[in-house]
Amino acid sequence: MLLTCPYCGPRDVSEFTYQGDGNRQRPAPNSQDLQAWNEYVYDRQNPAGDHNEIWQHSGGCRSHIRVIRNTVSHVTSSTVPVRGAVHHRSTERRKPGAKA
Amino acid sequence: MSPRRNETGGQIDRLKTIRFTFDGVPYTGHPGDTLASALLASGVTLMGRSFKYHRPRGVLSAGVEEPNALVTILRGTAREPNIPATAIEIYDGLRVESQNRFPSLNWDVGAVNQLASKVIGAGFYYKTFMGPVVGPLKGTRFWMFCEHFIRRAAGLGHAGTVADDARYERMNAFCDVLVVGSGPAGLMAAKTAADSGARVILAELDPRFGGSANWSGETIDGARAADWASEIVNGLKGRNNVRLLSRTSVWGYYDGNTLAALERVSDHKETAARGEPRHRHWTIRAGSVVLATGALERPLVFPGNDRPGVMLASAAQRYTNQFGVLPGEKITLFTNNDTAYQAAASLKKAGANVATIVDVRTDISDQARALAASAGAELIAGHAVSATDGGKTLSGIRIQRLDRVSGTLTGEQRGIQTDCLLMSGGWSPVLHLASQAGAKPEWDEKLQAFLPPQPTQNWSGAGAFTGHLATADAIVEGHAAGLAAAGGKPRVVEQPAIEPTFVNPEPAPVFEIKADGKSFVDFQHDVTADDVRLAHREGFISVEHLKRYTTLGMATDQGKSSNVPGLAIMAEALGKPIPEVGTTRFRPPYTAVSIGSLAAERFGDLKPERLTPMHDWHLARGATMYSAGLWFRPMIYGHAGETVEQAYVREAKAVRETAGIVDVSTLGKIAVQGPDAAELLDRVYTNIFSSLPVGKARYGLMLREDGVAFDDGTTWRLGQDDFLMTTTTANAGKVMQHLEYFLDVIWPELRVTVTSVTDEWAGAAIGGPKAREILAACVKGTAVDNAALPFMGIVHGEIAGVPVMICRLSFSGEMAFEVYCGAGYGTHVWEALIEAGKPFDLVPYGLEALGTLRIEKGHVTGAEIDGRTTARDLHLDWMLSKKKPFIGSAMMDREGLIGADRLQLVGIVALDNRPLNGGAHIVEELDEENPHGSIGHITACCYAPALGKYIALALVQGGKSRHGTRAHMSDPLRKRFGPVEIVSHHFFDPEGSRMHG
Questions:
Q1: Which residues from B are below 8 Å from A74, CB to CB?
Q2: What is the pLDDT of residues B782-828, one digit of tens each?
Q3: pLDDT (tens digit, 9 = 90+) per residue, B189-219?
Q4: Do the domain assignments include residue B192?
Q5: What angle (nearest 5°) sits at the alpha carbon of residue B317, between those of residues B315 and B322?
Q6: 3-state secondary structure of B541
Q7: For residue A56, what is the nearest residue in chain B, using CA coordinates?
Q8: Residue B798 near chain A (CB below 8 Å)
Q9: The complex's ipTM?
């Protein structure tokens, strides 16, 4: 299986680590809603079909990517950086008016 | 020339002679021969003994589907069993042995099994050896008694015990179009794709490209088919967008159009060329795949269909036309379709004597009649073979009229003398790769076969694989598939002119002739038609159960010839049509794969070895090294004559009395940097780090999201936004990944970077009453007294000219310091510390002493933070901040995690003054015969020199509430039992006065 790392391009799946279900919603840190925490930590859908997954390119750039993978055919229809834009942090730090 | 070999014809080089031995008897053959063809040419028809009944067997086929003629190749000291004789190319000096016979192939005592065959049908072993014990002759003990004899008597060849000294290779390849199979369809596909400019790989199982063109006896546009094939292959050779792989079995079709193939590079050579591997494993990523894997002819199921001399019609055609070997003196055919007639005519043309064709059908086509006539064969329609005669070779057959409606045989039996019976039960496309790729085969009523389904991956089919058996179709389809695979626009191609005109290959739906005697479905595993019906009667009606109960299709040939006949017989027993019975999904590999090729160069030292900068120093000082994960660490620095226990006790004692030094470079080290670094640490640690002053360190504990303890370590604040986190050696990678996950996925707004710096720093922990004096003697640029370097303080200085960072913290419970320097100066600084320590009796110590010191102090490590324990279980609840949420804070107080009966950390003292065992249970009542009632287990144990006792840490139900009570250690595996006292885990200096100094 190949996964396309948004930073590094298509790479063999052996370079990646599965980091869990991408549908999980972490409750607010100080939430005391045990039901919500329980769903976040334990409840999974296990669909036969498209599945939203988090993978880490652990044998490469180490970034986390969101993969939509069909659990039946293993076809990945989308791979995007979890953080959003690739240069997220460097753009944030740039001072207004500074050269790129 | 040998008796069966034709003077001319075929693709063998008669000018050269190859000498080989079979069971020690010398034989000859020619380049181009397989072992099977060379033996047949020499008049050898007996090549093996069957799996269970030890029946004599010859060759059934001429290809990799061969179930009968399995042999063992002897090469040097190695032996490779279960190789089909039909897939072995002979070479000078080849030594081959037959299998599953004793004392010889010709005279095999195991053949007495045939007498007991009524008893040893399907499920014999289950019925005899499983289930409730009734008397002495049932059950596991009886099985264990009999197993040795059964394993000797039943089975295939024996593997060698000598290490395989052959070399194997792995290769990765990428192409636009992978063509599997090089018959007319595959060749045409490869040529067309290559002409379109695509990067093409053409893989062929056999040594020779061309597939059926090598033996069909046809002409294509006026040229001999074999010449037509050679011309195309020659045109492909040397083109830089084409890679031709012969002797290459594409055996697996995986996700993303990744295919696995095995190239047998030098098996056919007396000696491999310099640097040449034996096998080469290929991982091929193909843009698209053209499956042109052909079709396999099926046997018919009738009594005695396994006698040497009975083979497939297409196999005979191949032996005759490709190898110039006539399969018999007087040949008969038994068929349910017209393709056998074509084989008969082809054999006749090559000089064979084709006497009789027996056909189950009554309505024989004119084309078939004409072919029978041209073969000079008597045609007996509406009849079936009901028995075969002869011992180890066929001497004759008996035929009877077949009533197709009832399936019964009627009328007089008629005998026909023959030494070779060719059978044809229809054709099955080789769907294995398509099935592996994830698609379900579809039953075709006309061809009475499973056809390839709609592709689920990017492949297309061509030729006999699609069920179109005619060469003309194959060429047209190959052209179209090659063009499409290369991304070209479809165009009309002219039908090639093929002579002779192909017949209609659709068979009559007859798979089995029911008559008395053993009718084999799976030749290799000795599964008969009656076994299939027995399985049905006993309720194994799902095709998956049928397969496992009878072992139909489970041998090395994986049911290539038996799959469809077996299903047909089961379908009939069930009274259902075949498609409703279904078929099993094919699994890789298509043909046998050498384990060596899968491992290739990757054996022996598979894991990298991580060595600390001071590794060589440890070795030079006689350290016994210990592997901890990937790391190598000193276990003890043993003196001459010391036991391990004596050594670690000496080392640990020295730390308590003078000073000791230990290499801690392996600790995980992560630089946590950025404006939000302190905020991140507050979220991942249970305690607070934002309040930590610069230049101080703090012990921290991490939990998992579910509230269970994860890892511990100290984190040092080097600057306002700059922390150095240390983790346990074992969890360094996991903690790094944990932080990266939360930063990337959960809290992307935090402005923090984490960097693994484990390998950048060398670390030495120096501890003991003299530790500070030693540091004072060698550290420049900073004071190390209590004022400058208080407990958990950090200073920067120099040792022997090298910048160092020193943190005063203690794992041993003594006044101790961790000294870090750049990894490149590790040994330099270490040696300077050792030198400075000489006047103070500084002793280097290893992991055993380190463990002893921490057990005496009751400090936890991975043995206690085992993924099941909580902070409270380990008495670390003082670290759980109530002022802020942290990872795991919401889940850690769930009912099950705070129960009073949880396993909690305690100390254990042996009351019998004998060593305790790690992993042993703690029980309240000792029962050596029937151990029960575990209340916990020992996690770490040692002899504690500070106490003069054998002690341990343990996780015990109730924890503290049991302090001061007695219990027992129970270790039935190692037969060690004894009384213990449960105490606090703080064995030594519970107030910590020594480290605070």
A1: 255-256
A2: 999 999 999 999 999 999 999 999 999 999 999 999 999 999 999 99
A3: 999 999 999 999 999 999 999 999 999 999 9
A4: yes
A5: 95
A6: coil
A7: B741
A8: no
A9: 0.88
